Amino acid sequence: MKKISLVAATLFFGVALSANAATIATVNGKNISDTEVNDFFAPMLRGQDFKTLPDNQKKILLQQYIIQDLVLQDAKKQNLEKDPLYMKELDRAKESILVNVYQEKILNSIKIDPAKVKAFYEQNKDKYVKPASVQARHILVSSEKEAKEIINELKKLKGKALEDKFSQIAKEKSIDPGSKNQGGELGWFDQSTMVKPFTDAAFALKNGTITTTPVKTNFGYHIILKENSHPREQIKFEDVKQGIENGLKFEEFKKVMNQKGQELLNSAKVEYK
Question: Average per-residue pLDDT in the chain?
Fold first, then answer.
């Protein structure tokens, strides 16, 4: 579960510059630093640092930031801060922020008993499970005959020799465009990810072995190499504790807000026209 936040993200041009900020552009005499660009695009970057992005991506974001800043400058030149539409939108934004602060204060006042969090985990353990998964490669061909020929070519190989040859054949003969250039690599998947015949065959293999008969699906005939596997695993309480607490807190928050809203409605003089 994701951390709950009811306060809308608000972006400002006037961000405080850190001591190590570097000027990366100047627009109409105004310096623009990498730090303020990073802060502006932070919600979109999701933890990435603007400074570490490839040069072409940095250039695109910087240009977007400059255009946004130029629009802001032009709006100020046109004295739009005194425009009635601006004042109306500003009042609306202030009211929205005020409601968010009101809700945030109520949310922060809610405390969840640790015993309740633990009890929820124990009662819902089946929901906190990492399913069994395998890591595999495959070669997909259109005929059973070709699949059997490839199996005959591979069946006497083991270890790295098998992996290398399998990868080579996948690149040369596989008709799966999504994996052939990666040597047939499919990555990790669980039993709900692939079609059943493929999944059943992959999970039945031992690590480091291939299917000895072609696996038929609607896509064609597969030869599968099982590289690795993980058994079904119970997720530890400590790893989901915060998420459970946030979920219970939010459920309690909804109850409190519904009750508060009803109380305010009951105490207000409302006339429906």
Answer: 90
One domain, residues 154 and 117: no
pLDDT single digits (tens) 145-181: 999 999 999 999 999 999 999 999 999 999 999 999 9
In angstroms, how far is the first alpha carbon of the chain from the final one?
Answer: 43
Dihedral through CA 83, CA 89, CA 90, CA 92, nearest 10? Answer: 150
d(CA 73, CA 79): 10
Same domain, 210 and 138: yes
CA angle 194, 200, 205 (to 5 degrees): 115
Nearest to 151 by CA among 205, 229, 109, 190: 205
Torsion sign across C-alpha atoms 266, 267, 268, 273? positive
Residues 56 and 118 in one domain: no
Contacts of 49 (CB under 8 A, 6+ apart): 38
Copy the structure tokens of residue 167. 């990868």
CB-based burial of residue 104 (10 Å sphere; 0-12 exposed, 13-18 middle, 19+ buried)?
Answer: middle
26, 17 contact by CB (below 8 A): no
Residue 128 has a pLDDT of 95
Is pLDDT at 208 greater than 60 in this prediction?
yes
Closest alpha carbon to 130 in 26, 235, 28: 235
Same domain, 121 and 176: no
d(CA 265, CA 228): 60
Encoded tokens for 214? 């072609």
Q: How far is CA 154 from CA 159, 163, 185, in A?
A: 11, 9, 16
Cα distances from 24 to residues 21, 40, 186, 202, 228, in angstroms, run 9, 15, 41, 52, 46
- The reply to whether 29 and 74 lie within a common domain is yes
Q: How far apart are CA 174 and CA 168, in angstroms?
A: 10
